[in-house]
């Protein structure tokens, strides 16, 4: 059982920087308000409370962005981030109206670039229910990724539960991948080597989506350069040691997690459904298929850390290339603010992973 709220708050404050503590605590408070006991969700209020950032055609800190609908039939939109081409803007010396960036339509109709660059397809977190591509925490993270990798980030505004249950988020992720690999302006390399050099990434539910999209890509012959999972959200009916030990201690409770799985999974499914527990009793092993390399970021104070470590071990058992970065004293969301050694060291790991697997 979780301890008292006062004990849990005090424990959090000893390991979490105050800015991160305030950020995640505020999100937790709003999330508790928005979830209903009957499984429904206060979507209108959620949209009002979510702090958002508009796309910016002119660079801010060397990065510009724009929103683009890739599937009119369901209104599936992505936000595309790119580095400013103006040298001063890219260096952060000139911003806003004074900065120079190429027109969006011109960018979308580019031919493949000769110099290889990564394309990160990013799936935001929020336990399949909260947040969007325009949520400020994820807009900021995607901008950091652009500055980190000098490539392009395509953030996917997938449909959310409980209005859109399994497999809608996975279908939207797959649609985004197919769109990305079909676009000449996202390809790089010379001659037959010109292709979209795609990495899949996401945190929380976004990491879960990245896994399932990567499995489908392996089945259908689409090359993925790598998966980057941050505190990926997995579950199961049997509780793990970390779930019992950390229940309610660092922002997240099992009751929270159970609500989100019930909101996303098919109505008659339990948490051993393959969407939740991919290597569980109803899941599928991945031996013998060309599954991509994985960089798995695990926070030791995330109650689902055992599940993430178990996921990594299952991939290894199936013969796949996995690197785990286990930050034992980090909590959920540490990568959202650049205020800890955990953040800076993990960003270095991500940069190294991108560079090592680009070609």
UniProtKB/TrEMBL annotation:
Gene3D superfamilies: alpha/beta hydrolase. One of its GO terms (biological process) is raffinose family oligosaccharide biosynthetic process. Belongs to the 'GDXG' lipolytic enzyme family. GO terms for molecular function: gibberellin binding; hydrolase activity. The active site is at residue 204. InterPro entries: AB_hydrolase_3 (IPR013094), AB_hydrolase_fold (IPR029058), Carboxylest/Gibb_receptor (IPR050466), Lipase_GDXG_HIS_AS (IPR002168), Lipase_GDXG_put_SER_AS (IPR033140). Keywords: Gibberellin signaling pathway, Hydrolase, Nucleus, Receptor. This is Alpha/beta hydrolase fold-3 domain-containing protein.
């Amino acid at each position: 059982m979780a301890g008292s709220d006062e004990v849990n708050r005090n424990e959090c404050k000893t390991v979490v920087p105050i800015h991160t503590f305030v950020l995640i605590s505020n999100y937790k408070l709003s999330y508790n308000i928005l979830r209903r006991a009957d499984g429904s969700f206060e979507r209108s209020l959620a949209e009002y409370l979510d702090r958002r950032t508009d796309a910016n055609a002119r660079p801010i800190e060397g990065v510009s962005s724009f929103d683009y609908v890739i599937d009119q039939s369901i209104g599936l939109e992505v936000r595309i981030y790119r580095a400013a081409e103006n040298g001063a803007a890219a260096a952060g010396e000139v911003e806003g109206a004074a900065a120079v960036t190429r027109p969006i339509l011109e960018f979308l109709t580019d031919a493949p670039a000769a110099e290889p660059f990564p394309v990160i397809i990013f799936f935001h977190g929020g336990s399949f229910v909260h947040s969007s591509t325009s949520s400020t925490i994820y807009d900021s993270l995607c901008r950091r990724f652009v500055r980190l990798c000098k490539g392009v980030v395509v953030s996917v505004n997938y449909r959310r539960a409980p209005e859109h249950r399994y497999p809608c988020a996975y279908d939207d992720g797959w649609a985004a991948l197919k769109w990305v690999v079909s676009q000449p302006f996202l390809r790089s390399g010379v001659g037959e080597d010109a292709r979209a050099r795609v990495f899949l990434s996401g945190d929380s539910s976004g990491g879960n989506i990245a896994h399932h999209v990567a499995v489908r890509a392996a089945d259908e012959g689409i090359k993925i350069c790598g998966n980057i999972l941050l505190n990926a959200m997995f579950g199961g009916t049997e509780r793990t040691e970390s779930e019992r030990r950390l229940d309610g201690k660092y922002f997240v409770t099992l009751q929270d997690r159970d609500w989100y799985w019930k909101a996303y999974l098919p109505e008659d499914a339990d948490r051993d459904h393959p969407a939740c527990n991919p290597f569980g009793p109803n899941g599928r092993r991945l031996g013998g298929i060309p599954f991509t390399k994985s960089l798995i970021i695990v926070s030791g104070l995330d109650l689902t850390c055992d599940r993430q470590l178990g996921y990594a071990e299952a991939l290894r058992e199936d013969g796949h290339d996995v690197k785990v970065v286990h930050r034992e004293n980090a909590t959920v969301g540490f990568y959202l603010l650049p205020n800890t050694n955990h953040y800076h060291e993990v960003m270095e790991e991500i940069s190294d992973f991108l560079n090592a697997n680009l070609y």
